[in-house]
């Protein structure tokens, strides 16, 4: 891979290049802080509006921004890493898959996810698992990043279009579904099937396909959503009413209300019978290129099940979004 050439007259690139942090491991490159900003802006040189926004995002995260380029990645994704006790910002990271026909679009997509924090949208930090479901804690924890990623698409899709990108390049591809017919048949016959965890899983399968209809050109998401609903309803007849309520919530547009965002996301979680977040966190710009993290003053009802539940933090010390989606 050739070394990048960056114009010294570029208004979005800092003059100081002493903070360059680059390592090469095969086809993987790592950048941090100002060097990450330079590398990111290079990919967006033909997209002036995207470059301006990217520069703003990079400045917000400052020295806490990590950026990777890797030809071996299956998809691009982003990550926000926090320290919880006491609450503090660790880093934000974007990993870009190289070698695709939509490198600039994928990069901007992930940066737009990071921009939701810059715009003040909070994210869930803590939730409670009932004691009798603690064995499924890892499954629940896997639900949250997928839902968060999909919900954020509602926040960033229009901006992606506004800065000049084509709707067809918002998503890289649509993940095909598993064999719903076999899974439904097995669930109905099994005495070990736990409806408490099965119902959320079927709802999320439907949700991930249905919401992609709003951000994709093609018939696949609608077909997959119908299939998930058909077979999921065989196991959980109430799923039809639930999915109707989910559609009404998303189509109402309430998720774009930054001040009430946490309540509406918790409503979505409750519809899916997934434990809602009891604490929420938001990020503000700070001094010395380090963002500051705060907890919302408003808290949902804490530990609704008393001593019969366990408090967990989202992804342990790491809050990830997008890592299970092909973006």
Structural topology:
Elements: E1 23-25, E2 28-32, H1 34-43, H2 48-61, E3 65-70, E4 77-83, E5 88-97, H3 103-118, E6 123-130, H4 137-162, H5 180-189, H6 195-212, H7 220-235, H8 239-251, H9 261-271, E7 277-284, E8 292-295, E9 309-313, E10 318-321
Parallel strand pairs: 3-5
Antiparallel strand pairs: 1-2, 2-3, 4-5, 4-10, 6-7, 6-9, 7-8
Helix pairs in contact: 1-2, 2-3, 3-4, 4-6, 5-7, 6-7, 6-8
Structural notes for this entry:
The protein is an alpha+beta fold and about 325 residues long. The protein has a domain at about 125-135 and about 170-280 and about 295-310. It contains 9 helices and 10 strands. The protein has helices spanning about 35-45, 50-60, 105-120, 135-160, 180-190, 195-210, 220-235, 240-250, 260-270; strands at about 25, 30, 65-70, 75-85, 90-95, 125-130, 275-285, 290-295, 310-315, 320. The strands form 2 sheets. The protein has a 6-stranded mixed β-sheet with strand order 1-2-3-5-4-10. Strands 8-7-6-9 form a 4-stranded antiparallel β-sheet, covered by helices on one side. Helix 3 (about 105-120) crosses helix 4 (about 135-160) and helix 5 packs parallel to helix 7 (about 220-235). It is globular, with a radius of gyration of 21 Å. It starts with about 20 loop residues before the first strand and ends in a 6-residue tail after the last strand. Mean pLDDT is about 85; it is low at about 1-10, about 15-25, about 300-305 and about 315-325.
